[in-house]
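Continued from yesterday's entry.
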Amino acid sequence: MSFDLPPLPDGWAFTPLESCAVPGSISYGVVQPGSPVVQGVPIIRVNNFRDMRLDLSDVVRIAPEVEAKYGRTRLSGGEVLLTLVGSVGQVAEVPRTCAGFNVARAVGVVKPANGIDAKWIAICLRSPLSQHLLGSRANTTVQTTINLKDVRALPIPIPPPAERLQIADFISALDDRIALLRETNATLEAIAQALFKSWFVDFDPVRAKQQGLAPAGMDDATAAMFPDSFEDSQRGSIPAGWSVKPIYEFAYVIYGAPFASSKFNGEGIGRPLIRIRDLRDEAPGVCTPEVHIKGYVVRAGDIVVGMDGEFRAYLWGGEEAWLNQRVCVFAPKQGVPAAFVRSTIEPLLAHVEATETATTVIHLGKNDIDRFRALVPHPEVLLAFSSVVDPVYARIVSNKQTARTLTTLRDTLLPRLISGQLRLPEDLAEMEEAA
């Protein structure tokens, strides 16, 4: 199969992906997995791919007798995976901890040949060139699908071994740094959520004082802010003196403005604009420069919610951008920490999502938000909560911004490095300084 390929430096060459793999190893996984079983063999599906890595928090297990028929794609660790159906072109390396796993039909397995590192294959498959070539040959008649024939023929640039190792190590170092920032943020968010649950869901300080005990891990001044008894309310038993109020008592709800689809452009020219699709990756779209509208500008640290599909409260860490319709912001009022607003509305959003899903209409409306009721503690308790969680949220936002900068750097350098336009080690010092 012919490809229109860019020139490479002397000593470099393109070779088909199948030449970089163990002969006959490029294949797809289990076609008919059957019903999941609790003690079965884990299989990796398309939804387990996340940011060039595998997210194994939701892994399906299949019967061992079914998996036994697909020994060709049984994983040992060190393979490269590529999604072939649906959200095609996602890439991940298989860690050794996944030895014994298998993959679904929509996932392709590449077992690197001796002398070819999995990191290099993964980097090349992620490159704009490979993604373009895969996309240009994808079948989109029913569901986007890539044929294994095209995957095997995919041209992979092969530099000399030493240079190949330097490039792979450099890109991997950026990947690891980005992953570490995201893992740190997950830990920080868990810390903030755990404190919210302890104070405002389980009422641990109040229960401790009710039993004549000092609240664990809390100084006397903070403990004194909590009551030592409960009272009845429309939500059941709550701390004495606290109240159940509409969401508007502690947060402003700001709705996005309508932007005509004809005003969007793909050149990155104009003002950033947040749509629902942009929330997860914090990558705003762009509207044309001539668009002028009085709307809300989302800033880092805002709590942003999509109003169609999956209802989630995102702590925005992207660049400043206009807010498009069907997206809204829950802006904390004076004295209310953003972490309190976010953790308060998340179960309310989940309830709406569960209700709407049951009726097949996935839509969050103003009428739903008008019915939101939340427990509001004394202002001094919110102030104490703020003193703990505000620095945590600030760190999360800072880490998101750093990760985005490193991601941009990596994605800018990757195609230049694997095409030989940018050479190592001559430019390594400059790039390490930038990283």
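--- second protein ---
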Amino acid sequence: MKAAILAAYERIRSVVRETPLERSAALGGAFLKLEHLQHTGSFKFRGASHKMARLTPEEAAAGVIAASNGNHGLGVAAAAQARGVSAEVYVSAQVSPAKARRIQALGARILQAGEDPLTAEIAARRAADSSGKVFISPYNDADVIAGQGTIAVELCRQLPRIDAVFVAVGGGGLIAGIGSYLKAVSPATEIVGCWPANSPVMHACMTAGSIIDVPELPTLSESTAGGLEPGSITLELCRRVVDRAAFVSEAEIQAAMERVLLEEHWLIEGAAAVAVAAFLKDAGRYTEKNVAVVLCGRNVSPEVLRSVGLTLR
């Protein structure tokens, strides 16, 4: 997959932001990949932009369909708007009204389907199949995964020796892309998958060796919550590249959000805090090693902000 990721990097480098890598002495000396500073506030813009770049003129003219309660929808809407492509984004009943409004503001049409993200995702794919439009999966798409993997291309240039990288895992597109590239160019790098203990869906599927229904509890890590689409290609990719799993509690996620805000003055979303919390929990084993932690996004819903004692006015 290395070649596909490098090709993706060349295709989208003019439209995505090369995000900084900064060392944080206050956060255990980790090197923070500031993907929360990416356009639309998360790494999802990379995968969406790459998928958009791969559309044929006929596919672009027909428009695209996606499913997302947040970051992927924002990424697809922005990438579609930039290319002049019409976009429909399916959301579930769980969507934050504020995030839905942001997706609409970028020109996408919002359609609600089902009570949970996986139901909306399945409905969106069916709609794409029946209409002939291209469905842009948040993770179950080789072009999207290659786009997310461009983060690793930047990382390797910014930090020549990477001993470990901590990445939050939802559907697995981010860690599949980053891990696939690093395993090709830096096989000694440890790929640490990070999950909220309340929603370890991909890890449970990896353990089972197949996509299964996994019970979940509410989590501050909204962006990693939800089940996997049947047949997702990310399952085998994650099994291949993830070296170690780390799990964090809701209290640890909230503490990481607060610590990053206090120490670095950055507001990050729960998914980004999952990776930070997982590193901080085990920082002692990485003394004098180069560790990268991916801050995957900053799009915190007002509902989550209120739950952790913050408000937006």
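The chain has a mean pLDDT of 94. DSSP finds 13 helices and ten strands in the chain. Will compare against the first tomorrow.
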